[in-house]
Design brief:
Layout (H helix, E strand, L loop, with lengths): L2 E3 L9 H7 L8 E3 L7 H7 L4 H12 L5 H13 L9 E4 L2 E5 L9 H19 L3 E6 L3 H10 L5 E8 L5 H8 L6 E7 L2 H13 L1 H6 L2 E2 L6 H19 L7 E5 L4 H13 L7 E5 L4 H8 L1 E3 L19 H8 L4 H14 L1 E3 L2 H10 E5 L2 H15 L5 H10 L9 E5 L7 H8 L20 E4 L2 H11 L3
Parallel strand pairs: 4-14, 5-6, 5-8, 6-7, 7-15, 9-10, 9-14, 10-13
Antiparallel strand pairs: 1-2, 3-4, 11-12
Helix pairs in contact: 3-4, 3-10, 4-5, 5-6, 5-10, 6-7, 10-11, 16-17, 16-18
Bound molecules: pyridoxal-5'-phosphate.
Length: about 475
């Protein structure tokens, strides 16, 4: 399999080159040249596999430059850290199916990709005798999943900036109680925007970036999308076993990463098997306006009780745009120029009709989110986290359309105890992974919101 850029400006890459490049050098996003299709025979073989075995099969469609035995080891190690034997169990709850994606070490779905990506980075670096220093900013979930993905790994150090005192207490503790020598938590005396601005400025200093082998693990890495494709196919297979031939998915979306993985799964399985994907957003509804009105225009970011979806510019959107614009890199480049100039893209009726063959979309308010957590709990006894509740609320709209509805549960409710308690009257039960969190030793450095201070810290602690 070869990989290309949505902007057409790179020579085709191998899978390994794709992983190490992350963002394409021409500023675009990297995609496989084609999506393999599968037939009934393959699906009936896949239906007998465990989750890691299935992941290995799906990855093999996209990876041809890593020996199968090595890939197998990476996959099995990645999912050995999960606390459920099925990795991503699909459970029937009331009128819908919940696909629990929160059984990894940080209790959010990002572990599914980052546990694998951490091992993959280590493998590729050892192979090349190279080193990497990962630098990133987080307001919560991504940072802790990245830290758990690379803790204790060889040839990688990780520096994650978070706004001091402005991350939820559970999320701050999840990060700062990781005491491995290769993990550096930097609590910045400022806001999340300050953290992001510092990271951006450091990456823009190309000499510094090269000298300290800086790398990123953001959601634009193709390997992350690829890892997420697996659970859509997994859930589809579980329902096919029960005699269902088609399944709807409802996906709480921020950066368009998770739902793009659903789109890839649909390209592999065929639209008759996944007739529609429900794109659920919170009050930050740029993607809902795109699907429903053909209006992709920047709004202001609103803080909500589902903070991991408080996003306006969806970093993976360009991947879908490439397909929507006829896989024409010139049109993608033009569109992205218009967007960066005017903060808006408009789509005509013909394009909009095609978007709506792939997606339906609903924006869910915070009031509706709380209401959904409360009523779902009253009716089924099942506690939803606020992100999952956004997806469930939207997914309920598909109930009368003839196929089962699978709602992706992207976080464990115990990660968001305040919002959940407000809805159901008491905080959710803490799973073992969070027990005694407050008593564990911590490792964190507090720094001012100052580029120079962060650069000095990185320079002193980077692997060279
Ligand atoms: C990151 C995240 C999302 C959104 O996923 P995208 O890939 O950005 O669409 C939803 N829920 C939770 C809990 C997350 O951490």
């Amino acid at each position: 399999m070869r990989y290309i850029s949505t902007r057409g400006g790179i020579t085709p890459l191998s899978f390994k080159e794709t992983v190490l490049m992350g963002l394409a050098e021409d500023g675009g996003l990297i995609l496989p040249e084609a999506y393999p299709a599968v037939d009934e025979e393959v699906l009936s073989f896949w239906s007998r596999l465990s989750y890691p075995e299935l992941a290995l099969e799906v990855f093999s469609l996209f990876v041809d430059d890593i020996p199968l035995e090595d890939l197998r080891k990476l996959v099995f190690q990645a999912y050995a850290t999960f606390d459920h034997p099925e990795i991503c169990p699909l459970v029937r709850v009331g009128p819908v199916f919940i696909l629990e994606l929160f059984h990894g070490p940080t209790l959010a779905f990002k572990d599914i990709a980052l546990q694998f990506l951490g091992g993959l980075f280590e493998y590729l670096l050892l192979e090349r005798g190279a080193r990497m220093n990962i630098l990133g900013a987080t307001s919560g979930d991504t940072g802790s999943a990245a830290i758990y993905g690379v803790r204790g790994r060889k040839n990688i150090n990780i520096f994650i900036l978070h706004p001091h005192g402005r991350v939820s207490p559970v999320q701050a503790l999840q990060m700062t109680t990781v005491t491995d020598a290769n993990v550096f938590n930097l609590a910045i005396e400022g806001t999340f925007d300050d953290c992001q601005a510092i990271v951006k400025a450091i990456f823009e200093d190309l000499a510094f970036k090269r000298r300290y082998h800086l790398g990123a693990v953001n959601s634009i890495n193709w390997a992350r999308v690829m890892a997420q494709v697996v659970y859509y196919i997994w859930a589809w297979l579980r329902l096919a076993e029960k005699g269902q031939s088609a399944v709807f998915f409802s996906v709480p979306t921020g950066n368009f990463g998770d739902i793009f993985a659903g789109y890839v799964a649909r390209r592999i399985l065929g639209r008759e098997r996944i007739p529609l994907l429900m794109l659920a957003t919170n009050e930050n509804d740029i993607l809902t306006r795109f699907v429903n009105q053909g209006d992709y225009s920047l709004g202001k970011v609103v803080s909500t009780i589902s903070p991991s979806m408080d996003i306006q510019v969806a970093s993976n959107f360009e991947r879908y745009l490439y397909h929507l614009l006829g896989e024409d890199p010139i049109r993608v480049r033009e569109a992205m120029e218009v967007f960066s100039r005017e903060g808006r893209l408009r789509f005509g009726p013909e394009e909009l009709a095609r978007v709506r063959e792939d997606f339906a979309s609903v924006s869910v308010s915070q009031e509706e989110t709380r209401e959904t957590i409360a009523s779902f709990y009253q009716e089924t006894g099942y506690v939803l986290d606020p992100h999952t509740a956004v997806g469930v609320r939207a997914g309920l709209r598909l109930l009368d359309r003839g196929h089962p509805v699978v709602c992706l549960a992207t976080a464990h409710p115990a990660k968001f105890p305040e919002a959940v308690a407000e809805a159901i009257g008491h905080p959710p039960r803490r799973p073992p992974a969070l027990e005694g969190l407050e008593e564990r030793p911590r490792r964190v450095t507090i720094l001012p919101a100052d580029i120079k201070a962060v650069k000095e810290f990185v320079a002193q602690n980077a692997l060279l």
